[in-house]
Design a protein that fits this description.
Elements lengths: L1 E6 L2 E6 L9 E10 L2 H6 L13 E2 L3 E9 L11 E5 L7 E5 L3 E3 L6 H4 L3 H14 L7 E5 L4 H12 L4 E5 L3 H4 L9 E3 L6 H8 L5 E6 L6 H7 E9 L12 H6 L3 E4 L7 H20 L7 E6 L3 H10 L5 E5 L1
Parallel strand pairs: 9-10, 9-12, 10-11, 12-13, 13-14, 15-16
Antiparallel strand pairs: 1-2, 1-4, 3-5, 3-7, 3-16, 5-6, 6-8
Length: 322
């Protein structure tokens, strides 16, 4: 089968063996894939969790049909339309654990379905499970113009947030954040953004920050969070290391929570997917939670799709179809 593989000379489409499902695995005939920032790093040879390096079939998000079931797989049958996440997505066929997938709603095509699994699982876990957002609270999404950021704002609104603040350093994308739930859009590269957040919250700061940037905004986040507020760190777009004001952290008694899928067990991931199904799936089926598709590429043009992502001018998801 054809797959997009990182090799000695970089990523390229090549022939690999078609996988066979074992245990609780499901074999998926892939129709569409969503691109993610972690994929971009892996096209340069970076490791993401335990995956990456030479010989790796790239990709982590897809939509397609069940082609075959492992002996212990439950909950789906051959022919079902599904979407999910896992390694080796950029291929004609991929494997997924039966607990790491969703049924694709009948009112969604495969391109649309492929945009959702990573954003839904990541941001429901960050905003609701770890962020513990309550109706009437305020939330700031750092890096809000990314696909997962756009989803985070929508989930926050769905769960009854009183004030949703979104950040983007790009003026064009920042201007569109209100389409996806932002009441206030800020530029995190502007030193005045903390004052804007404090003004919007009566000087108190937000109840919750979901931070995809970290690094350079870490201390500003502390200043923009209310006493006994929460910060959930889901990314490091601003760098993996930076100065941190421990005194301000302690003085404001902020709960600082780190989350990632890279170190989670399959049992933990299954629980996250189950929580999405139980809590917000009706909103997904009603198209209240959805992501814009910036551009669709054919699988043969996947290199151009990654060049488009690296240019960093898109809003929403980049999709590749097979």
């Amino acid at each position: 089968m054809k797959a997009y593989v990182y090799g000695a000379s970089g990523p390229e489409i090549t022939d690999v063996a078609k996988p066979a499902p074992k245990g609780t695995q499901v074999l998926v005939k892939v129709h569409a894939c969503g691109l993610n920032r972690a994929d971009l790093g892996m096209t340069k040879g970076h490791v993401h969790g335990s995956a990456g390096g030479a010989g790796t079939v790239l990709g982590m998000e897809w939509a397609g049909e069940v082609a075959e079931l492992g002996p212990d797989a439950k909950g789906v049958k051959v022919g079902d339309r599904i979407m999910g996440s896992g390694a080796a997505a950029f291929a004609e066929y991929t494997l997924a654990d039966h607990g790491r997938l969703f049924r694709a709603p009948s009112n969604m095509n495969f391109d649309e379905a492929a945009t959702l699994p990573v954003a839904l699982a990541t941001m429901h876990n960050a905003v609701v499970t770890n962020g513990a957002l309550q109706p009437g609270e305020s939330v700031l999404i750092q890096g809000a113009s990314s696909g997962v950021g756009l989803m985070a704002m929508q989930i926050a609104k769905l769960k009854g947030a009183r004030l949703v603040v979104g950040s983007s350093t790009d003026a064009t994308r920042r201007g569109r954040l209100k389409e996806f739930g932002a009441d206030l859009a800020i530029d995190s590269s502007d030193p005045a953004w903390v004052d804007q957040v404090l003004k919007a919250t009566g000087g108190q700061g937000v109840d919750l920050i979901v931070d995809q940037v970290s690094g350079k905004v870490a201390n500003q986040n502390l200043a923009a969070t209310r006493v006994k507020g929460r910060i959930v760190n889901v990314g490091r777009l601003g760098g993996t290391h930076a100065d941190f004001n421990f005194d301000l952290h302690a003085a404001r008694r902020i709960h600082y929570i780190g989350v990632t899928f890279r170190t989670r067990t399959i049992e933990e991931i299954r629980e996250i997917f189950d929580e999405v199904r139980k809590d917000i799936w009706p909103a997904v089926e009603a198209r209240k939670l959805q992501l814009p598709i910036d551009k669709v590429y054919k699988f043969a043009d996947i290199g151009a799709a990654f060049a488009h992502m690296e240019a960093n001018k898109h809003l929403g998801k980049i999709v590749v179809t097979l």
